[in-house]
Amino acid sequence: MTTQTALPEGPILTADGIPLKDSLQKSLRQNKLRAMFLVSTPLLFLVFLFIIPIGNMLTRSVDDTFINRVLPSTIEAFESWDKVSEPPESLYSAFVNDVKAADKVDIGKVSTRMNYAKPGWKSLVKRTARKIKKLKGPEYKDDLIKIDKRWADKEFWLSLGIMKDKATFGYFLNAVDKTYDFDKNIIDVEEERKVYNTLWYRTLLVSFIVTIACLILSYPVAYLLATLPMRISNLLMICVLMPFWTSLLVRIVAWMIMLQQNGVVNDTLVASGILSDENRLAMMYNFNGTIIVMTQILLPFMILPLYSVMKTIPPTYMKAAQNLGATPTLAFIRVYMPQTIPGIGAGCILVFIVAIGYYITPELVGGKDGRLIGNMVAYHMQKSLNWGLAAAMGSILLAAILLLYWLYDRIIGIDNMKMG
Amino acid sequence: MKISMKQTLLVSIVAAATASAAQAEVNVASWGGAYTASQQKAYSDTWKEGKVNWINYNGGLGEVKTQVESGAVTWDIVDVLPSDARIGCDEGLFEELDRSMFIPAANGDSMDEDLMVEAPNDCVVPQIWWSYVPFYQEGTFSGAQPTTIADFFNVKKFPGKRGIHTWPNAIIEMALLADGVAIKEVYNVMSTDAGIDRAFEMLDKIKDHAVFWSSGAKPLELVQSGEVAMSLAYNGRIGAAVLSEGAKFVTVWDGQVLEEEWLVLVKGAPNAEEAKKFLIHASAPEQQAGQARYINYGPMRKSAFEIMKAGEPWFHNGKNIMEHMPNRPEVMPRSVVANADWWADYGDSVSERYTAWMAK
Asked: Which among B58, B62, B105, B352 is least buried, having the fewest CB atoms inside 10 angstroms?
C-alpha cells in the first residue's frame, strides 16, 4: 500500500490537463447548443406563429389600458366624484384638457372603446373633439353642453365606471350575454339583445350532431375500405378523397343546388308525387342545411383515422372469436369494435374541433338559425372591429377545446389516439 | 435541369423587378364582380400613367387594420362603406388628403362643393351612391303590384317569402318607413328605445316569411328561382340583371336606403404617390360618369350626373341609365340617406338585437 503513489491533489485531469468535470460539461454544452440550433427553427416558428398570436389574443380579450392612457385626468376626476351629485366642473375640464393634449387618432380609438360601454359615446366624443380646440375656458361645463346636450346626461359620465380599470372582463361577459352595470356589478343584458348564449349552445349542438353523424356514416365506409380487396378499396378510397380535394365552396354550392326549395331533391319529390308543391321541404338556409353540409364536408376527417386503425386489425381476430363460439355480431361488438376505439376517439376529436370553429359553411347555408359562434368571431374581426370581443370568444373556444382534450385524456388516454 | 430552372427563376425575378420599376402599380381593394369590372373600365383602363391591380375583398376594416397595425401594408386604396370611411379616418387607418389636389367641376366648384353629400372627413374620395331596395319578378303577383315599402312588409296583400339580409342596416329604417314614420324623422325615432321596438314589431310581421341572404348575388337567385316573392337587394345588382341580361325584375322605388361608397388611401400605403394620382383621376367628373356606363350606381358628383343626362342613352349597350339611378331627382324625396354617424353609435347594439331576432 505504501508503494502506491498517492492520488494527485485536486480534481481529475484529462490528457490535456483540463479538469475532467469541465471537459465533460463543455462537450455536453456543445451537444446541447447543437441540439438547440436544430430545434431553433421549429421553436421560432412556434413562438411567432402560435405562442405570440395566442398570447396577443388572450391579452386583447382583457386589456383596457388604452382609456387610462388617453384620458388620465378624466379618470382621476371621475374617481373623486361622488357619483350622486351632478357631474362637477372638474370632470368637464379634465376631459377637455385630456382631449386637447391627446392625439386625434387616439381620440377616435378611445371613443370606439367608450361606445362599447354606452352607445352614443362615439358621436358625442367625435362631435365635441372637432370643436374643443376653440374653447377658451376656464369653465367648460356649459360650453360642452352647448356643443351637445348629451353632456348634461349623467349616464354618460357614470359609464366611465366600467372603463376605469386597466383590465376588464367586459368582453368575456359580453360573449356570454352579461354586462357590467355602472358600478361594475355583473348583470344580464336586456332580453332582446341576448344572442351569444344561444349561439354557444347551438355551436356545441351542431358540433355534437355532426360528430355523431360523421361517426355513424364513416364507420361502415372505413370498415369496407379496410376489409375489401385492394383493387376495390382503392377505388372507394378515391371516392372518399375526391370530395376532400374539391374546393369547399364548390361542394357547398353543389349542396345548395341539390337541397334548396326549388332544388333537385325537392323537384324530384314533387314530380314523383311524394310531396305536394306547397309542402316542399326546407332543407337549406337553416339549421338542417348547416348539419347536412358540415357532415358531408367533415366526413373524411372521420373516415381516414378510422380506416388507418381498422387496417391494422388482423382479420384473424374475428375468425378466432367466431371459432370460439361467438356469433358474428357478438364477435364484432366484443372483439372488433374495442380495437377501433383509438380511431373513433381521434376521428371524433378531430371532427368536433374542426366543427366548433366552422364559419364559412354556416355563413352560406345557415340562413337564420344555422349560424354559429365562428360567424360572430369573423363578424367582430372584420366588420365591427371589436377585436376584444372576438378575442374573448376565441379564448373561450380555445378553453373549450383544451377542456375536451383533457377529458379525452382522462377517459380514453391521449396515448391511445391514432391519427393515421 | 436544375441550373436551367434556377436561370429561369432568376430571369423572371429580374424581369418582374424591371417591370415594376418601369411602371407604377397601385393596389386597390374593392368588392369584385360587376362593380369592380365597372371601376376597371371607367378608372384603370382610362388611366395611362400606371397600372392598377384590383383585389377583391369582402368589406370591413379587419384586413386594413391588420395591415396598418402590423406595419406590412400591401393595399394602397380601399373602396369602403360610409361607416368604415368614418371609423378608419378617426382611428388613423387612412391618410388625410389635401382636398385642393382634386379636379374641380366644369362650373368651377371644387370637388367637395360638387358632391351631393357632405364629405364626412378629409380622408374620403367620392365613389358612388348605392342603395338597398325591394324588387320582385314580373308576374309574381296577379292584380295589384307592390309600389311602396309598406307593401314589402305586407304578406297578406302580397303573399310569399321575403329575402332580407343578415345585418340590420337599412332594414330598420325601412321597417319604420313602412310603419308610417316620415323620412325626416327616421333617425330621431331610431334614437329612442321605443323607436327600435317599433321597428322590430314591424319586422316580426315578416319573420316567418323571411329568407336571409348575406352575399349580393343571392337575392337575385332567390327571386329568379321563385324561392322568395320579393327581396331586398343592392340596386346595382338588379340593374345589371335587367340592363345586361334582360331579366324581368321590377324595382320598387320607394323607401330605398342610400349608402355612400368612398375610396380611401391606406395609411403607410407602399405606392402612395401613384395612388394619389390615381385617386385624382378616378374622382374626376368624366370618370365618375364613365362608371355609370357599366353599372347603375349613382355618381356622387353633381357634374357627373349632368354629363350622363346629356349623354343618354348612356349605358354601354345603348339603353337609358337614368331610370335605374338610385339618386335621380324623382326618387330622392322617397329615399332615406343612411346616417353613418347613427350607425357608428348604435350599430353594435342594434346588430346584436337583430342577430338575436334572427335566431329566435
From this structure: B58
